Amino acid sequence: MTAVQADRNDATVGHTAAAAIDVGSDGSGGAAIDRRGGQGQSGTGDGAGRGEFDLIRRFFDRGPVRDALLGIGDDCALLAPRDPRSVLAVSTDLLLEGRHFAAGIDPVAIGHKSLAVNLSDLAAIGALPRAFTLALALPQYDEAWLSGFCTGLFALADRHRCELIGGDTTRGPRTICITVFGEVPAATALRRDGAQPGDDLWVSGTLGAAARAVEERARAVGEHARAVEEHAGVVDERARASAGQAVPSDPAGAARLDYPQPRIELGLALRHLARSAIDLSDGLLGDLAHITERSRVGAEVDWPSVPADPCLGDLPGNEQRRLALAGGDDYELLFSAAPENRTAIAAIGARLALPLTRIGRIVDGSTVRVLDARGRPLPMTIAGYDHFGTG
Known about the structure:
- The protein contains ten helices and 13 strands.
- The chain has helices at residues 52-59, 107-125, 143-159, 209-232, 237-244, 251-258, 264-269, 284-295, 317-326, 342-352; strands spanning 12-14, 19-22, 76-79, 86-96, 128-138, 163-171, 175-185, 200-204, 274-279, 298-302, 333-337, 356-363, 368-371.
- Helix 2 packs parallel to helix 3 (143-159), helix 4 packs antiparallel against helix 5 (237-244) and helix 4 packs across helix 6 (251-258).
């Protein structure tokens, strides 16, 4: 079997010809969406016909697998690369209610984003999506929530021909953990450690809209909670949930936050052009630092060239820089490439109808600097998102 271990942003390339993926939760060999316990034992059932078996059958078992060798219903799923020259790319992401999404967010959006953030990791390494597993903890059996979640999840999965092949369910705080599997020729995988001094630095799309939506949504939740506390002396969790649905002033920003679009086609097109790549989940500067550290280089970012989203235009300049450079949740691709590939990269952007912007360069050293229009360093004290940070 292949052991799977990856952090939020790291796509691990496995070098086995085929993988047997054990998706039981305790190593004892549960089914491949784990059915151990059944109604009244696993903790997910709350009435006749509404136990774990029913949940899996109604919402997640979509019949025989189309692409994998073996899927839901066995101790393990079996998956092999279509091309014998390819290897498996594996990445895992964990989403926790209250940390990554508010209680009142549309479950359709949660289903979409849960898979999208994983597919974005595959895009960053230039991998073609193949399959995924899902581990899901729920506070109770909620048909309406599950129906919406699966609508968003499987719409995106079907679009990228990425099938569910296993997982696990239990009762607990709402938690979603997806492991995604793709394939890529080992020689053309887009890694973080390939940047070279003299490379151009590129980014797809625009930056900062999702980060602004996060802040506006958090502000709405806080204002709701304070109003209820002042009125009744207690926090009404239903009020918090409804505040989580508050629409930011820019609907496009909310869409960027709730429905990020993984740049799979771009990652595939860059296989023979880019020297390094990463997806932007935790902010441009923080994620760029992963490339410079792994490649043992420095970088310069020209702030006037950074494609800040138009929705930031009404903000002061320092706020625009903070959100565009360190806001996170963009899920665009940041990559480096040799200058002679500029024409080919521009052609890819035109073919995909996706803006690709040259924002700086890779340099000798180990420092990342942000420069103004005159080439002078801007004082930057902001960094990418840290799950265990104190801020």
